[in-house]
Amino acid sequence: MDDTSRRITGLMTILRGLLAEKAHDQDDPWARVVFQCDRGPGGQEKDGSSMELKAPEAGETDDVIRERLKKALAEYRGLHDSPPHKIDIEKACRLSVTYEAAEAERPLLNKVALVTGAAGAIGSGICKALLEKGCRVAATDCNEVALGNVVDELKEGAVGRIAGIMLDVTDAESVGSGFDEAVCRWGGVDIVIVNAGAAQVCSLMDLKLEDFQRLERINIEGTLLTIAEAGRCMRRQGTGGDIVLISTKNVFMPGAEFGAYSATKAGAHQLARIASQELAGFDVRVNMVAPDAVFSEGAHKSGLWAEVGPSRMRARGLTEDGLEEYYRNRNLLKTRVEARHVANAVLFFVTRQTPTTGATIPVDGGLPDSTPR
């Protein structure tokens, strides 16, 4: 996006925050709105019931824009005795505003989530669970074909509430553009699931530096760029938010020949813990979910396990089914960890069941050595 478009998305995020109404839930104190952009750039026909806003100017700070928008909203409410349902942004777009109250069965109604690594087993499972709870979901991935398949499958029951967005977590420009696209579609972002990751099986003695650096870029730098952009967006919006990192049991229980993955995911985990301290003042909660191996979700295979599974099978003399059985039998509950289990842990955090930040939920069937300390 160019600078003008970025300024427009910044204005939309601030505006969405200002249109949110105070709720009666101290854990989740805002009833949010969502936008739909009805027209593209080029001006709009005048509508007496719509609120007209001047586009942001170069160098105009968020604080200046916020004060200008507060004044415009106060004037509109004074004239119409109601909040606006149509908003014209000069030479940019016309926004339709949806006001809906959350429901018991859909507690995430009018919230917007951005999920990285959405085309894989865990990512697609999380997207499905968020949609079931009423959320709008920006499903992002760098695999265009796999992402398209996930979105096509999920949109059948969620028309207008899911969008596929190409995003490379190792590229700051791509991350920023992905968030901007989500904002352009619905007005802001309230939930961010940091799920994109990569793994490799190799001993430290044989590990090539460039292979370690590839994992470092995806698992650590990708986490940093995603959390940082999420924090900036949520701070600008002013209505809090939730960030959940999909971590791993390997942070607490690393395995031989899994050094690059274990070390870089530990770095990502530590970044999330630090973010929980830095963002708490904006009511942004940052938590972690640490699963053991998840091999598939329906037709969607885990990209991570597609990469590392063959070597794990060879090392143990197992077939694919035998490898899954091995992981099931090594946990205390003798259970198969599935994407829906990981998604349920995510939902616990993003529906704000408890006043919690900086915490980790293990989803591993019980592995005493991986219990967070």
How do you describe this structure in short?
This protein is an alpha/beta fold and about 375 residues long. It has helices at about 5-20, 60-80, 120-130, 145-155, 170-185, 210-235, 260-280, 305-315, 320-330, 340-350; strands at about 20, 30, 35-40, 50-55, 85-90, 95-100, 110-115, 135-140, 160-165, 190-195, 240-245, 285-290, 295, 300, 360-365.
Written description of the protein model:
This protein starts with a helix and ends in a 10-residue tail after the last strand. The chain folds into two domains: 3-99, no CATH class; 112-370, NAD(P)-binding Rossmann-like Domain (Rossmann fold). The radius of gyration is 22 Å and the shape is elongated. It contains ten helices and 15 strands. Strands 9-8-7-10-11-12-15 form a seven-stranded parallel sheet, with helices on both faces. The longest helix is centred in the middle third of the chain and has 29 residues, at 209-237. The chain has 373 residues and is an alpha/beta fold. 43% of the residues lie in helices and 18% in strands. α1 packs across α2 (62-80), α5 packs parallel to α6 and α6 packs parallel to α7 (259-278).
The CATH architecture of the largest domain would be 3-Layer(aba) Sandwich
Total helical elements:
10
Sketch the major β-sheet: 7 strands, parallel
Please write the CATH class name of the largest domain: Alpha Beta
**Uncertain regions: pLDDT < 50 for 5+ in a row?**
none
Query: How far apart, in Å, are the first and last alpha carbons?
Result: 43 Å
Structural class: alpha/beta
Strand runs, count = 15
Number of domains: 2
Side by side, the strands of the main sheet go 9-8-7-10-11-12-15
In CATH, the topology of the largest domain is named Rossmann fold
The radius of gyration is 22 Å
Write out the CATH superfamily name of the largest domain: NAD(P)-binding Rossmann-like Domain
Shape: elongated
